Amino acid sequence: MSLKKLGLVALLSLAALPAAAQTQTLRIGATPGPHAQILEAVKPIAAQKGLDIKIVEFSDYVVPNEALSSGELEANSFQHQPYLDNQKETRGYKIETVAQTVNFPIGIYSRKHKAFDALPSGASIAIPNDPTNGGRALLLLQDKGLLKLKEGVGFKPTILDITENKKNLKFTEIDAAQAPRVLDDVDAAVINTNYATQAGLDPVKDALTRENPKGPYVNIIAVRAEDKDKPWVKTLVEAYRSPEVKKFVEEKFKGAVLTSW
User: Fold this and answer.
1) How many Å apart are CA 171 and CA 121, to the nearest integer?
2) How many C-beta atoms surround the C-beta of residue 78 within 10 A?
3) Long-range contacts: 135-138, Cβ < 8 Å, 24+?
4) Nearest CA to 246 among 28, 32, 41, 30?
5) Which site from 57, 68, 94, 239 is most exposed, i.e. has the minimal number of CB atoms within 10 Å?
6) Could you give the CA distance from residue 181 to residue 199 in angstroms, rounded to a whole number?
7) What is the tens place of the pLDDT at every residue in 149-197?
């Protein structure tokens, strides 16, 4: 066979490769800690399905949606629905949820007190300064009987919505990522699980109390609205919500992170 014919055969062979064999790269934004660790477990499963996941880590909650909206990412996996809803409302993002992932019950931590009931009158409490996680902290304190909030405040109450403060708690609002760093300076801090684990805290053993895991704060995978019906989205969701990833989460986090599937 001539070299020309050999070349033609090679080209025809390449053209005959199935579409699934062609790898597509997805840049997925996540915060350090469990979100990024879970995506590492998703990577090999996604690779079998033709997706090459590149994890892009962000140290805060603000930038990942901006990066997704501007096209620097194909997806992100770091937030719950109330947070995304607030970001869409305030920033006008055209971003949609395509799957629920895991739940990180937010907790109250302290280096000065061994039990939740031991928090003294006038205790200083650090809470996240973003509307949804700050509101989440206040709702947790209400659920545990220390506060009462105005009726109908929804998922975004602020300290101005407190109608009863049984122990006269004093609140300091800080960036969620900084919460573990102020534990020595306050009586207690409400800390998101990903930042707690990143700081070496065990949410199951170290938290004085945690929220009910069946609330509205299940995390999500988000993509741009224009992409939500593309085939790779379904493939990504299947890879994430696989039995292998569920097993990884259960064995790695031992109850600190809960799967939604």
Assistant:
1) 13
2) 28
3) 135/82, 136/82, 136/106, 136/190, 136/211, 136/217, 137/106, 137/190, 138/162
4) 41
5) 94
6) 8
7) 999 999 899 999 999 999 999 999 999 999 999 999 999 999 999 899 8
